[in-house]
From TrEMBL:
Residues 1-33 are annotated as: Disordered. It is found in: Membrane. Signal peptide: none annotated. Belongs to the autoinducer-2 exporter (AI-2E) (TC 2.A.86) family. This is AI-2E family transporter. GO terms for cellular component: membrane. Pfam families: AI-2E_transport. It comes from Azospirillum ramasamyi. The keyword Iron does not apply. It is a multi-pass membrane protein. The chain crosses the membrane at residues 41-62, 68-86, 98-119, 164-186, 222-244, 250-279, 321-354. One of its GO terms (biological process) is transmembrane transport. Keywords: Membrane, Transmembrane, Transmembrane helix.
Length: 370
């Protein structure tokens, strides 16, 4: 009986068999250079797709940047309303809705009170101003008066009025959007926070909650610094106007403090009624008032606000100034308005998500002790 041979580790291929990878074999095997080329092509294609996706996302965000800035403004006001309502709730024990209503009524009364304090005197001073302007024009030589009348007829009053009305409509529409967004966010903040967290994978949701808490606390500290600056500007303006003998000094100071929240354009808007009232008394008073507003704004913009942001929210003064300049170049007036809080958010995200999570080092902003 024949014993079958035991297979060995090295068997010879049957006669006529072709080794794999050779022409005529049933399987194909690529050369190493071919496999490397295909791998490099796949990596390159993936990188191109990533760059294209990032570029498309960046273009989309740029197109809707105005809307995103309005929503961010609503978030800021929502934080203000929510924190103030929290203080009212702690002091009174009321529900969140009633505390929020009290805060809203108080803010409306504050703004309305400033307008009322300034309004009555403003109307009388404007009438006096009109009389003085008419009298001043009447004292001019006949040739100058005729030239003023001829040039005033050629001014494009209707076009300017139409442009002003169109801009005013846009401003009012944006204000309505911001106010409603702030109200909804402040009334039910948990819903929107949970919605943001659900966009994060489950393993990162706890960290997302922590990041949002730190961002909210940092923005609240920025708002505190901003409110202190507004109070300082309002107090200095009211005191300076009172010393200069300008009527409605308290109302004008309140208006200056409230408009201080709007960078660049706010101080100019606040100075207009004060200059009109002062000019109604005398041109010399108007010059003194213009100098007063200029000095206060220089002190506030270059000294008070940067130092406050450094002390309250730990934001370096150079970052504050640079963010305002960059925001104005990229997004105009609204960009300047939101430049500093956006810088706060960016610094928080970089410190938490990159310095802490990626590099494993302790964050530097905001400080761990804050």
């Amino acid at each position: 009986m024949a014993i079958p041979s035991r297979p060995t580790g090295h068997q010879t291929a049957p006669s006529g068999a072709v080794p794999p990878g050779q022409p005529g074999s049933g399987t194909t095997q690529q050369d190493p250079p071919a496999r490397a080329a295909r791998g490099e092509l796949a990596v390159f294609t993936w990188k191109v797709l990533i760059v294209a996706g990032v570029a498309a996302l960046g273009l989309f965000l740029w197109k809707v940047s105005d809307t995103l800035l309005l929503i961010f403004t609503g978030v800021l006001f929502a934080i203000l309303l929510q924190r103030l309502a929290g203080y009212v709730r702690q002091a009174t024990g009321l529900a969140h809705g009633w505390a929020l209503a009290i805060v809203l009524v108080a803010l409306i009364l504050l703004v309305g009170g400033g307008v009322w304090l300034m309004g009555t005197s403003m109307a009388a001073q404007l009438g006096q101003l009109q009389e003085q302007v008419t009298k001043a024009v009447g004292n001019l030589p006949e040739e100058w008066r005729q030239r003023i009348m001829d040039e005033s007829k050629d001014w494009p009053w209707m076009n300017q009025l139409s442009s002003f009305a169109s801009g005013l409509v846009y401003v009012l529409g944006d204000t309505v959007v911001v106010m409603f967004a702030a109200l909804y966010l402040a009334a039910s903040p948990g819903i929107y926070r949970r919605g943001v967290v659900l966009l994060v994978p489950p393993q990162g949701q706890e960290r997302a909650w922590e990041v949002m808490n730190v961002v909210g606390d940092s923005l609240w500290k920025w708002l505190i610094g901003q409110m202190v600056a507004m109070a300082a500007v309002g107090t200095l303006t009211a005191a300076g106007l009172w010393l200069l003998g300008i009527p409605s000094a308290l109302g004008l100071g309140m208006v200056a403090g409230l408009l201080e929240f709007i960078p660049l354009i706010g101080p100019f808007l606040a100075a207009i009624p004060a200059l009109l009232i002062a000019f109604a008394q005398s041109p010399q008073d108007a010059l003194w008032v213009a100098g007063l507003y200029l000095v206060i704004q220089q002190v506030e913009g270059n000294l008070v606000t940067p130092l406050l942001q450094k002390r309250v929210v730990d934001l370096p003064p150079v970052v504050t100034i640079g963010a305002i300049a960059a925001g104005g170049v990229l997004f105009g007036i609204l960009g300047m308005f939101l430049a500093t809080p956006i810088a706060v958010v960016v610094l928080v995200l970089v410190n938490l998500l990159y310095i802490e999570d990626k590099l494993g080092e302790p964050r530097h902003f905001p400080s761990n002790g804050s």
